[in-house]
Amino acid sequence: MKNTQPRQVTPQKKTNTEASKTIRWTENWFENRFFVYGCLSIVLLFVTLVRVRLLNLPLERDEGEYALMGQLLLKGIPPYEMAYNMKLPGTYYMYALAMSLFGESPAGIHLGLLLVNLTSILLLFFIGKKLVNTSTGLFASASFAFLTLSPGVLGFAAHATHFIVFFGLLGLLVLLQYAEHPNWKRLALSGFCFGLAFVMKQQAVFLLPFGLLALWLIEQQRSPDGNKRKVLNLGLFAGALVLPYLLVVLIALLTGSFHNFWHWTVEYAGQYVGIKTGSDAWRFLNLYFPPVSSGYELFWLIGTAGLVALFFSQNARKYRWLILAFAVCSLACVIPGFYFRLHYFIVFMPALALLVGVALNFLQEKWSPRLALWGNFLPFVLFTFMVSLVISKHGTTFFKVDLEKMVERSYGAANPFAASLEIARFIKANSTPQDKIAVLGSEPQIYFYSDRLPATGYIYTYPLMENQAYSLEMQRDMIAEIEKAQPKFLIFVNSSFSWTRSAQSANDLFDWYDRYRNNYNMVGLIDLNPTGKATYVWREALANYKAINKEQVWVFVRK
Question: What distance, in Å, lies between the first and last C-alpha atoms of the chain?
Fold first, then answer.
């Protein structure tokens, strides 16, 4: 007998209809504005919560350099006049802008970093969306957000690399807008932004040929045969590309600091990048890559898979060569000098994040037709797992670790970054704004905190210890500048981290210091405990104190 069971037909049809609606929704969930911008908002909120907690993190020495230079700019003193360094001055101006808006303090500087980082996340979202699709943009921007929070790349510090990334991404986004709506203003603005990335720091030099290559690829797609127009557009772009550097040179000429600018950013910089050898490169890469990837192993693995996915994904087909060029040129920015310092990797993070987005989108592209609902959710589940590994590894750092302890974990207690605050407070309380100070060591943050002018432009002593052509001349120049200025305070940083002295280093500066300090009385000793907090000893208490640690800071006042 045939059993039709008519009462079950209607509910079954309803269930199938609901399932069909669910599948259709999940197939298009990355086109749902509420879902996409809701996820993006959660990522931005997470980054904000972490970085706001870290606003008052003590400055490390690179931040101290940028802060000092920015502070001098706000006083009307141009770069390279009273403080020297080989970096181009773009980041100095960005620090000056941040401090003029938010105050001359670590919090003001790190608030500026927060805004730059959040904006960079949004820029990468729109770049990924234009290069591939919304799914790629969301995964790429979220990946970048977590990658740049990593303690392994010192992502909490306002290094020049964050500003390179900001202007590089801005230039790329404007170039992609030009591809959709050709306009000479967009073309010039894109080139100018790439040029600004370079003047943040020379490390960004490889983004310049990337910009030209990206434009050529875009022009090839638009009009394969329009060679005359391509040449004109490339010429306009190249002119805008070099304009920021020409403006930097012009400012140096007008302010009378061109000699120092050229010596430090070209002549000495050329010496600096030639110090390390190929064998050093492999050693440094092996030393620094493990902390860079710690907790982020899956991001690197899936990003590498994204390189392969580029050549199989239909969604990424249009701009696959542009994405590949971006990855190669961004990676090249990590290599100059073979130093592979932790924060250098930040320049590669947008490309790595974009490749993660390509890989996860390709996973969705291939598996959603086969697994329907689960095929669409699979990339999201995998990304959630990747993030959970990051939080399990670094969550304590993100939300719990005391700020001073965090500095000790990241740099070692023998680096006097937290101690610099107390030293500067003592100097500021016992001097006037007209007094100059001299720091023998590489701790420019002391100048910044104390708000006192440097008696010497040599705010780092690393170049003086290096095996390069100018080291002995630099030592003698530093001696002459200090003797001429006769600073009220002399601070000697007796820490190997502040000197990196080697057997090849000249001893002229140390021999001079042994004699010159007789013009001063010791008024402070900071005993840097390698396993805990420093001990501060001032004035009369010095008579009864015996230092117990190898690394110390000595504070002298002129007799």
Answer: 116
CB 127 within 8 A of CB 166: no
- Give the burial string for 264-286 (b: 16+ CB within 10 Å, else e): bbeebbebbeeebeeeeeeebbe
What integer is the mean pLDDT of 196-220?
96
Q: Report if residue 241 sits inside a domain.
A: yes
Give the count of beta carbons closer than 10 Å to the beta carbon of residue 314.
9
Do 362 and 311 contact (CB within 8 A), yes or no? no
DSSP state of 57: P
pTM: 0.93
Q: Residue 428 class from Cβ within 10 Å (0-12 exposed, 13-18 middle, 19+ buried)?
A: middle
Split at pLDDT 50, 70, 90, the class of 2 is: very low
Task: Please report whether residue 10 resides in a domain.
Answer: no
Domain identity same for 357 and 434: no
Q: What does the DSSP 8-state code read for residue 551?
A: -
Buried residues in 440-459 as b, exposed as e (16+ CB within 10 A) = bbbbbbbbbbbebbbbbbbb
Give CA torsion, residues 240, 242, 244, 248, to 10 deg. -150
Which of 371, 399, 427 terminates a domain? The answer is 399
Domain that holds residue 114: 25-399
Neighbours of 361 (CB within 10 A): 27
In the chain, how many domains are there?
2
Quick check: is 19 in a domain? no
Residue 370: the pLDDT is 61
Cα(520)–Cα(524) distance, rounded to whole angstroms?
12
CA distance linking residue 206 with residue 336, whole number of Å: 10
Copy the structure tokens of residue 199: 């003047």
